[in-house]
Design a protein that fits this description.
By secondary structure, the chain is of the alpha+beta class. It folds into three domains: about 325 residues, Glycosyl hydrolase domain, family 43 (Tachylectin-2, Chain A, 5 Propeller); about 90 residues, no CATH class; about 70 residues, no CATH class. Helix content is about 20%, strand content about 30%. The protein is built from ten helices and 29 strands. Strand 15 and strand 16 form a beta hairpin. Helix 2 runs antiparallel to helix 5.
Length: about 500
Amino acid sequence: MEPSVRKHPLSLLESKVRRLALTLGPNPRRVLLRPFIPSLIVKPLPSHEPNPRVVSLYSRVMHLDERGVKAKLEEVFSDFHERHQRIHDIFEARFEQVRHLLPTDRELSEARRLLLGSYFTNEYSLESTALFNPGIMPAPDQSGVPEGALRFIVSLRATGEGHISSITFRSGLVDREGDVRMDPVSRFVHQPRPHPAARYELRTFRKKLVEMGVEPVAVDAATRGLPDHFLMSELVAIVRRVRCNPEDPSVCRAAEQALLLAQSNYTVRFRDGLDISEKILFPYAPSEVNGIEDARFVRFVDDDGSATYLATYTAYDGNLVMPQMLHTRDFHEFNITTLNGPAIRNKGLALFPRKINGLYAMLGRQDGENIHLMFSEHLHFWHESQILMRPSLPWEFVQIGNCGSPLETEAGWLVITHGVGPMRKYCLGAALLDRNDPSRVIGRLKHPLLRPGTDEREGYVPNVLYSCGALIHGGNLVLPYAVSDTSSRFAIVPMADLLRELLRR
């Protein structure tokens, strides 16, 4: 006999949550120009050796006379110049990237170089599948903002062909009543220019390789000869030497892992004059080739009062998950570094917005099931964690995790959580931690703060609400959240009601 079906009543707090009539949805028109190699659409070429299809394509273009080259190039420009800015420069740069693959040293006309560049380029619709897992933070520039309002930046996980994820941004204003207005979104998107890290510290580098599962003896052999602080070029020379003398396969593997690790620490800079919505952080390092996932941004204020935007995210290469950290002050230049230590495992890392008792603090889900808390004297090294919260309510029996960095209030640290229950249904909850000792949980919602509504259950992954960060403004919690891993919405929660429920005994 089946149980009778009735609609589940909302809790008193949930009934006071205001869902905004605003949806940030995926837009397939926002396309990025990406390198294209025949048969390898999205992922980069695994080696620098020419393949037969590259040679065949080059040969066909070279058989065109100059008039035919110019006619085809004009057609390409006609089709695509309105869809991209500086497309001429992009084709020229793309030709230079593939020049070493082409079987010639012959000097080519500009038109033929550009046409070849276009054949090795394709459009990638970076958010054609989903625009989800949003986080929100105050913008660095608050000039010209109306009284009582706050300019914000939203980070989102954009997913396109091949389920490759990248980070994209939106901006807007929220007033003291909790009304949100989003800024117009540009149809153009741009990638930044990458730069390797200036120098790497050998001791830390070797330690990280061991944490990645590389045998210590192989690590020592593969990095022998590097100075205490080395450049990428010096590491590349060592790797080439090891490749040329493959007597010990374990040392060769260690050298390749060393190169991958070094490539995971880099800086990117956007060109001047771009709108925030035009800036895309697309996978660059080999460790990110299958996606940059679930960035949790926080405006971190250091002891001297200076502010930096930090984000933890998951780099995924299809096999290995590597936690990374992103630093920026202005959303123009971003420094990407690896996180180190045995406590850096799994996903869902979220940094507190300031030090606590002289230590950095971070939440995580090291075992995939419980929320953990960890402290460290160094931002990039985390050695121990302790379980902070376990699944204890039916709507979170499968697992719980954080939904972004904790928010500081007079009553304590507010942590937005997610819980997974029957039928893998994700709901959002909340907890309150002691301000001076966040290992003490002083409040926790017994019922969900937000559960999937009737129009929020369908999508790429059904029955899922998720967030990567909220903010407090004007007495309200501004909570962006993902809808079934497809699009994003906003909810406004009165802080007084939320704190009252959290502190209810």
